[in-house]
Amino acid sequence: MKMVFRWWPHGDDTVTLEQIRQIPGVSGVATMFSDIPAGEIWPRETIFALRDQVHAAGLEMEVIESVNIHEDIKKGLSSRDEYISNYITTMKNLHEAGVKCICYNFMPVMDWFRSNLELPLKDGSFAMAYEHSFASGLTLDRIIASMMDGSHDMTLPGWEPERFPAMAKDVEFYHNVSAEEYFKNITYFLDAVMPYAEEYDLDFGVHPDDPPWPLFGLPKVVCSAESIRKYLALNDSKRNGLTLCTGSLGANPENDIPAMAKEFAALGRVPFVHLRNVKHTSEKDFHESAHLSSEGDLDMYAIVAALQENGFDGYIRPDHGRRIWSEASRPGYGLYDRALGAVYIQGLWEAVEKSRK
Ligand code: DNO
Questions:
Q1: Confidence of residue 160 (pLDDT cuts 50, 70, 90)
Q2: How far is the CA of 162 from the centre of ligand 1 (A)?
Q3: Ligand 1 pocket member 321 (CB < 6 A)
Q4: Model pLDDT, residue 233
Q5: CB 104 within 8 Å of CB 74
Q6: Distances from the Cα of 351 to the Cαs of 101, 227, 346, 347, 357, in angstroms?
């Protein structure tokens, strides 16, 4: 297992590589170029320059989160072939720079969504939260505004402003796309890309839908054990894997996360894990919590044990942290709470390891 930490380059992060280097046990970053629009080739020189910067700080750059998928690929338009070809060139460039794992998602139009990016918790910290009745009643303008309001003027992953102008039309487009058609578009992408994933030694981890239920009338893709099985079966390559995001999947109390960790790690299909905890306030309402089992509804020990006992040998990163100690940062991605999470997870990992000897 390698512990990594999400980080944005080119001055787009409040956290520095030097700070990440000082978190015990963290070996590298999961990073991306949020300034390159989806569909464009990531130039070799740009990737190599970043790799060298990360290495100079004593860290590795083996995980990319995310190489976003152009909407035309998701929609299945004829222009998709050009974007897929660009995607494959980016994969080659990343491979040459030593990247081993690509996290991506196939969520239409928008990535994750929260109704409140700064819910005050009892201990004086702030966490991201989701209230279903509020979210379901929002117009697109309000959806965008509610995410931007809490963003502290930083790019939110998956909410890069260049996406906004097309969003309204895109949402409408998907209202006429059946789940079956949508899955055909995913298969087309996977069939084109997986042979190159093999060639370039790249593990792909699709990120679950967050929250893991239908919202805004958009097709849903990865939200339960059954849908993960379906996704993995779309293309049999072992490279076609899952980013097991415990917080995204765990937002649905019906999802048994240790069981999922067991099943998909045993298949060798989990290259990347996002570990965080959630606290349900009702069946479809929740807020994020500190990583500890005692702070949320997920049994983090059971999840870590299931991964380890089933041969998981990939990357783990602590996921969204709360805002604590008055830190000013991108919501969910400050230094302090995620660093606490990274160390806690490694404590669990060590405890499981020693208890198995
Ligand atoms: C949110 C993240 C997601 C994730 C993408 C992966 O904080 O978990 O934006 O990175 O869905 O493609």
A1: confident
A2: 17
A3: no
A4: 98
A5: no
A6: 26, 32, 8, 6, 10
Q: Which two tokens stand for residue 44?
A: 């070799």
CATH topology of domain 2-356: TIM Barrel (3.20.20)
318-329 mean pLDDT: 97
CB distance 65 to ligand 1 below 6 Å: yes
Q: Counting beta carbons within 10 angstroms of the beta carbon of residue 12, is it exposed (0 to 12), middle (13 to 18) or buried (19 or more)? A: middle
Phi (first) and psi of residue 199, to 5 degrees? -60, -40
Site to probe by mutation for ligand 1, drawn from 34, 66, 209 as the one with most ligand atoms within 8 Å of Cβ, is 66
Task: Give the domain ranges of the chain.
Answer: 2-356
Cβ neighbourhood burial of 251 (10 Å; 0-12, 13-18, 19+): buried
Token pair recorded at residue 174: 């998907």
Neighbours of 136 (CB within 10 A): 12
Q: What is the pLDDT of residues 125-153, one digit of tens each?
A: 999 999 999 998 888 888 899 899 888 88
